[in-house]
Specification:
- This protein has helices spanning 23-30, 41-73, 95-104, and strands at 2-5, 18-20, 36-38, 77-81, 88-93, 114-115, 121-123, 125-134, 137-147.
- The protein is α+β, with helices and mostly antiparallel strands.
- It folds into two domains: 2-63, 3-Layer(aba) Sandwich (Ribosomal Protein L9, domain 1), CATH 3.40.5.10; 68-147, Ribosomal protein L9, C-terminal domain (Ribosomal Protein L9, domain 2), CATH 3.10.430.
- Strands 4-9-8-6 form a four-stranded mixed sheet. It has a three-stranded antiparallel sheet with strand order 2-1-3, covered by helices on one side. It has a two-stranded antiparallel ribbon with strand order 5-7.
- The chain is elongated.
Amino acid sequence: MEIILKQDVERLGSKDDVIMVKDGYARNYLIPQKKAIEASVSAKKVLAENIRQRAHKEAKLKNEAQKIADQLVNKKITIGAKTSTLGKIFGSVNTIQLAEAINKKGFEIDRKQIMLPEDHIKEVGTYTAKIKLHKEVIIEIEFEVVAE
């Protein structure tokens, strides 16, 4: 039986794949669990239209992310932290503080989009973080942690 997957199914395929499976597997598991629908002619037309529209939206989102990335790459970001005389930070600098510093510059970045080189930064210095603006647009941004 030919089916269209409505969500990712491990060891079978990903969302919107048109695949062949045994009739019993489709009728008894995939379709009742709402993981797939039967691949009729009309369902295939709807799938093709959805894929076309999604591709257009994805291209728009990617272009917007690329514009933000181009503006963000040149920005100098500094984060102030309370430190000891040896340059060790009391506590640590994490993605929340970096996101707040970027947002103060006029950008909308969520902390979940930021990947730090280490889990927690505990010393004063210059570091590089990766920001995932889109699944295909990942930039590296340099930031400096300074003593307050």
